[in-house]
# Entry
Amino acid sequence: LATNGVVYLDMYFPLTDCPLEALPDVVFAASLLGQMDTAAHKAEELDSAIRTVLGGFSADVSVHEPLGTHTECIPMLTVTASMLKENMEEGLALVKEILLTTDFSDTARIRENLMQEEMGARQSMISGGHALAMTVVGAPYAASGAASDAMSGLGYLKRILALAADPDAAMAPLASAAARVKGAFTKARMTLSVTGAPAESVSGFAAGFPEGEAVPATVSYSVSYPARLAIKVPAAVGYAAMGSHLSQVGLSYSGLLQVLARIVSFDYLWSAVRMSGGAYGCGMGVRMGGRMYWYSYRDPSPVQSEKAFAETAEFIRAFAEKDPDLTKYIISTTSGLDPLVGPHTAATIADQEIFAGITYDKRCQTLSEILSADPAKLAACAGYLKEVASGGMQCIVAGADVCETLDGSFEVVTL
# Structure
């Protein structure tokens, strides 16, 4: 890939030996990399070195779902760095220094970052409540959903708020999480992806890393939430989401569902949720792993939106009966399969597909299913869509004025 002289380095270290309840702490501990003292730099000096030598550096936890199973997933400690090609030697050395010699003993700095993380978490659940709601409704149906909830959803929020409420008590579990992060940086776990330079240019990077031991290929996680959950936040607007999984009705993913989701988003939800309900945004989505979700953004009437989500099957049935021409929907759907992205994003997508086991043949199959979409096939979807929706989970993120009017079928959690 042409990168204009920039080299992108992505490192993946599986955390399949990490229990679900430890993931939130590990996510926070990983975020400290690049912000603490190392063997050669004080934190302030390290920040300057990163800005000078690297174009960027970040560490986080991602999760991948192997195609064909929703009961297993692969959580991974993911480290990303970029640098100019002429700075590769110095840049790789700096990355290795951060991973292998970060000192997590500065509790004052950890406490400061924890307070900042708490503030950011509180702001995100107000401004991006739709993302929170979508993460929550995906949690009960797949191992990857449970992991995502622990890394960025309600499970993560609860844990960060609890840690920040008693920072003295938080230091011991965070020290354990930091040790888990450092312990993951081994040759046995490492997968190295480089974009913009030949593989030989990083062949010696693993030197100096401990050998370590292999970990299981996948891990099984599960979490349980009530079928209807409301998260009360100090916000004047609301957000709604509904989620389910094709496995609930014994079905598997088809590219046809991408066409269906495009039709539902623009011909149904746009009118029922955005225009009539007043929401700023809305949509429906389907993941290749089988997850289905509906959402609204900055929504003054999230309860009505949930009702609209649940009536998707009726809309599709009526839509298909009109025998519409699907050409524009098919074109729109296929254009979203291969969007114009930068070289690093393209490489990251390729990495994700490798971990998920998504092959070229699978992508061709999906495209074929999209191109062969017709009204009769859409009508056949209506039957199981109703079943999927009835067995799905609903989540509303809203202020007290909305939460206090909900009926008894919603369990309310206050953050």
Remarks:
- The beta strands are 6-14, 56-64, 74-84, 191-195, 228-232, 238-245, 281-286, 291-299, 393-398, 411-414.
- The CA atoms of residues 173 and 379 lie 52 Å apart.
- The mean pLDDT is 95.
- The chain has 16 helices and ten strands.
